[in-house]
Every structure is written in C-alpha cells, then in structure tokens.
Amino acid sequence: MKKVVLLRHGESIWNKENRFTGWTDVDLSAKGVEEATVAGKTLKEHGFVFQKAYTSYLKRAVKTLNGVLDVMDLDWIPVEKSWRLNEKHYGMLQGLNKTETAEKYGEEQVLIWRRSYDIAPAPLASDDPRNPRADLRYNELTDCEIPLTESLKETVERAVPYWEKVIVPSLQQYNQVIVAAHGNSLRGIIKFLKNISDSDIVSLNLPTAIPYVFEFDDNITLVKDYFLGDPEEIKKKMAAVANQGKK
Asked: Which of 11, 87, 150, 182 is catalytic?
C-alpha cells in the first residue's frame, strides 16, 4: 500500500490576522510552529516513516515540513521544492483583512474570490512591488508562468501536472511521501484525486496542519482517504476556515 500525506502548513502570521496571503512569503505564527510539532507527533504515533517530501517555495510550508520531519527524526530524507505547490495567487487581495473585505464587498463576493473554481480576484499591476517577477526564487519562470492573480482552476492547472509527473512517479520508488503545501494548491490536488465537481469544491475547507492521508494500491489507484486526529476537533477547524471570509 502506498501512502501520501497532504498537509496544509501551520497557522501563519497572516492567518492569525485573517489576511489574504497568496504568494506573499509570510512566516508561521507561534501557534503554527506548535501545530507542525503536533502533526509530526501524530504521524509518528501512527507509524509513518516518510522516504521523500515535497513542499512549495513559501516559508510557511517549508518550515511546517521541517518541523514535522524534525519531530519524526526524518530531517535527512530528500525534500523537493516547487513553485507549482505554492498557494493560489490572490492578486490585489493579498494583505487585505478578509473580514474587512467582506464588510466592503459582501460575504458572497469574498466567498467567490476565496473558493469559486474559475473566478480570480483583480490582478496585481505588472509594476506592483508584490509582482513575483521581482523575486529571485522565480527567475526560472517565464512571464506566462508567473501569475498576477489566479483562480482555483489556474492553480489546479499548475499543481495537478506536478502531482502526475513528479509525485506519482516517485511512488514507484517510495511507499510513503508527504506533501506540505497550501489550502488551495492541496484543494486542487484533492479535487483531482476525488473527482470533486467544480461546484462542490467550494465547500472543501482544509484545516491547518492536520494530516490528510491518501492510500493507493500498487497501480496508484486511490483506495481510501482520511484525516488523522479527533473528528470533532477537525470539524471545528474546518468551520473556522470557512468563517474567515464572513463579516
């Protein structure tokens, strides 16, 4: 049986402040660091021993993964980073408080920006200092690849090919891998794996730092998926994520 754990990063400073983050490279909060530690302990208690890890270019995901692997004494395993696992780019919303934005534009509009499948927020201007083109880590990207905003659909179009071309082939060599990334890049992969419709994906909210296990047979056919942790606590965390964009 092959196992892949999808893990959204721990709480970031902007999660704590209820701000749209996207590609802004925000650090973990103290709570987020602790969440990573707890996730590592949970995975270790359930007997996971990862052989390969994947993460994004953003420090909140990288540091979550580092915290998990440190607790599990797996700091030595190979880690591959890719911009394709970055969070959805939120365009001009990046840095704005979600509650204040809901008060200004309405909860329904904010829900569309946050969770709809094919509607993106207004883009950054090309000369905006937040444009990823100014960031050294994205020098390898073409202008067509660098987003100034994204819908979930566009996030799927970069994350799922990475899943298919990089992560899935690694399962021929490794039995257990972990992917530490972001709410929307992981939602895109989950949508693909579980064949979730464009309309139903709006209701999927991933809590921070709760391991989500996907088990595959030797043909890499999905057998089952489940969260590790107390079901009631996970439900509360999911509800808290859903409520972030309300007045």
From this structure: 87
